[in-house]
Write a structure and sequence with these properties.
The structure is a homodimer. By secondary structure, chain A is of the alpha+beta class. Chain A contains 13 helices and 16 strands. In chain A, a hairpin with a 2-residue loop joins β13 and β14. Chains A, B: It catalyses: L-glutamate + acetyl-CoA = N-acetyl-L-glutamate + CoA + H(+); N(2)-acetyl-L-ornithine + L-glutamate = N-acetyl-L-glutamate + L-ornithine.
Chain lengths: 475, 475
């Protein structure tokens, strides 16, 4: 059902590119490291009725040329939903966007305005006014033009990423919003530039698009599209790993279906990745659905409890998962991309807690960096996972840990490197382990043998580069 | 009341020693790095009726000369108690020691036998038999000699640390236990050698001793003594950060008082330190109390609910805190020793959860390594702390964060560098911040302003060296 135009073209590229360590931070000339080019699409299929732009503001005074204002608009009022950081210190744009969605009941959203270079976090009342002003000015673009009767106030969500504890150069930003409106476009170049404008220390823009069909008869013959961009996880003094994500679809999703679809997708994607376990003040994932692909065919919107809803959920979760994985691919200093699968757990929550504990263990992460098949550290992390549902969630004698190569051999029995079988260590073939750990990608398979539930998590390793980047080390 | 003979002599040493980064692991010749010498006592006051020894076994075949078997005995039956790792994978010696304490109700304990070089963890039924055999053989030393009527089986606790997933060379170890018994001594050299024998990749032995008096009239004129040793947190493939600790006192502590005293002391010491947040399969902290100092004066034992109990608790907690801090001093690759104090919290549990979250944040730890006054990352960690008692546990507008130098100026107002005041960032004097962060020691003060409880945590930074050590990086 899901067809990805990006993945195939990216694969063609990848074969000719060598793996390279990323540099200290994003190159100053904004060039993309060779090892990351395979993750950047060269074309895409974008949803109807959306236009996007990237505009230079110079939020950071040192930025004299790179676009740092992204504007994503829907030509018609869209339904909108978002999930926000659970951090108790919530940045001003998080508070403002949340309020707008609440006030409008998630309806009549026209745009998302995003600046990079300053997170507008821990900025007090003034910061709230700045975020509101960005949203208001963006909203004006539509209120003046085609919605004079909209009395519910701002219809633009707002996001910021960058330095915290500093006020936005608000006047400068506001003065460029009409330029951003004039710059709007709907081709691949516009989407890619916009994905780049939300980046901070990312080494490559994170953009995906896909097209799909829905099973219901009303949707017969209609091709829907879904595009998404994300950024993170780059942190240089005093930035934090703000994770921003925007999803846009031209499928007709109802107001009450949109939020649960997003929440479920986020649970298995953006909430199942880890760079270093730190959760920022600004994390936001938003979705807009304008129904433009079906607008002239009077197609009824997707409602909860239907076959179309389930299909949409599958598409959205799969898409969000792939998008979120790009964040891990660009983890600071990362040399490994690891999926940890926890299977046969007593509950999905148990599986996720264990996967997340493994993904956050500095000992596991440094061992992977060192290409060391250190099952002891994985076992140890399983054993100290907090908050499991019962005493029997982990039983040493039924615990199995294996490494699986993340290529086609993953399905073959001979591809599996067993490390721990029913709680007893295997004699590890160190040579095979070393070969397996030479690859950038790896699957860590944990079979708890205590139930039937499972969960996956994606993470990267801890490298010297990670310490260099985050220590802002002065040599 | 508490007098520490070690601290003063250590201080004299410290002034002449420069700070140095530790090497890849413990030097092969067992020499102690110059920067750590100040933490190693040159004399001590040790409890009566205890004798200790360090004997070479060669648990690791590559170890041809360093002592790796520690034997700590009480000349008379002692009360014993222990706290063990909460990891669900519990090493064989943990299971055996726990059983012995249960069977005997914590009474009639004669010794602790400890090997380094192999953790006897994840070794199945055979491993349990090995640990039991170590305990049984150690017990024989006393059963044959002076306790023919003791029918409760083993009276020796057992601990192991080192590689996991490998069986002990049990015959080799057992054959050396009578030598270990013959080697027993009670002078400083014997205690220091024993503290060294339990080390793995530690760069220095961790030993403290102190003497104290108790307020009750029965204790008038009696000097009690308390000695302790610990090891951790060194991990090289496939070791984990086993933390072992042994406390011995000649004070007369009753059977039912000993365990709660230890649990409370551990809560504020060994359970309030963090190297990297990983909890091992072998962690054990044990205490023996033989009452030898008071034995000929018919002094009644310390019982719960008395003035003496409270005094003993203060002594023990203070002592265990200083001992546990030595583990942080030897944290892998550590260049900083940081105390985080969380004050004015709604509950002690809230304060401890927040302190522990800050202590575990890779972003905070790398910023400290980089000598970066990055309050944003501290704030962020406060904000994402899980499991707090209520929604109002953290209120941005009442949150204060400061850095305090860990020397005498800590008490002076001008020594405090305010970073965040009532949720608003301060204009930081970067030059002063830089000076403050040049010191090895630092206090991070968090004032939540939501209650009256507090907790402290001690941790170290994440350095390139940490990644090198734990990545076992092959250059």
């Amino acid at each position: 059902m899901t067809r990805t135009t990006v993945a195939s073209s990216a694969k063609q590229l990848s074969s000719s590119i060598n793996n390279q360590l990323r540099h200290y931070s994003a190159p100053i000339d904004s060039s993309i490291p060779g090892s990351k080019l395979k993750f950047v699409p060269t074309s895409g299929t974008y949803p109807k009725g959306f236009r996007v732009s990237a505009t230079h503001v110079g939020v950071k005074p040192s930025n004299t040329k790179n676009a740092d204002l992204a504007f994503i608009i829907s030509d018609t009022p869209a339904f909108g939903a978002a999930v926000f950081t659970t951090n108790r210190f919530q940045a001003a744009p998080v508070q403002v966007s949340r309020k707008i969605l609440e006030t409008r009941g998630g309806a009549g959203i026209r745009s998302i305005i995003i600046n990079s270079g300053c997170a507008n976090a821990v900025t007090g009342q003034g910061g709230l006014e700045d975020a509101q002003a960005m949203s208001d000015t963006a909203s004006t673009m539509f209120q003046q033009r085609d919605q004079p009767d909209d009395t519910q106030g701002s219809n633009s969500l707002v996001m910021s990423t960058g330095v915290i504890g500093q006020r936005l150069p608000t006047k400068k930003i506001l003065s460029k919003i009409s330029t951003a409106y004039k710059n709007l476009g709907d081709d691949h170049a516009a989407w890619l530039a916009t994905a780049k404008a939300i980046c901070t220390t990312d080494t490559f823009p994170k953009l995906l698009s896909t097209s799909f069909r829905l099973p219901g008869k009303h949707h017969d013959g209609i091709e829907y599209r879904l595009a998404g961009m994300t950024k993170g996880a780059g942190m240089i003094h005093p930035n934090m790993a703000t994770l921003l994500g925007v999803l846009c679809t031209d499928a007709p999703i109802s107001q009450r279906a949109l939020k649960p679809l997003l929440v479920e997708a986020a649970k298995k994607s953006f909430n199942a990745i880890s760079i270093d376990g730190d959760t920022s003040t600004n994390d936001t994932l938003a979705i807009l659905a304008n129904g433009a692909a079906a607008a002239d065919q009077e197609t009824p919107p997707i409602e909860p409890g239907t076959e179309d809803y389930d299909a949409m959920q599958t598409v959205l979760t799969d898409f969000a998962t792939r998008l979120s994985q790009l964040v891990v691919r660009d983890g600071e200093g990362a040399t490994k991309f690891v999926e940890v699968r926890v299977r046969n757990a007593k509950s999905e929550s148990d599986a996720k807690l264990i996967a997340s504990t493994i993904a956050r263990s500095p000992l596991v992460k440094t061992a992977l960096y060192g290409k060391d098949a250190n099952w002891g550290r994985i076992l140890c992390a399983i054993g100290y996972t907090q908050g499991l549902s019962s005493e029997d969630s982990v039983v040493p004698a039924s615990t199995n840990v294996s490494f699986i190569p993340a290529d086609n051999s993953a399905t073959k029995e001979e591809g599996v490197l067993r490390l721990l079988v029913d709680g007893e260590p295997e004699q590890v073939d160190e040579e095979r382990a070393a070969r397996l750990l030479e690859d950038e990608d790896l699957i860590v398979d944990v079979n708890l043998g205590t139930g039937k539930q499972e969960a996956s998590y994606w993470f990267c390793d801890f490298s010297h580069e990670y310490v260099t980047i985050n220590g802002d080390y002065r040599t």
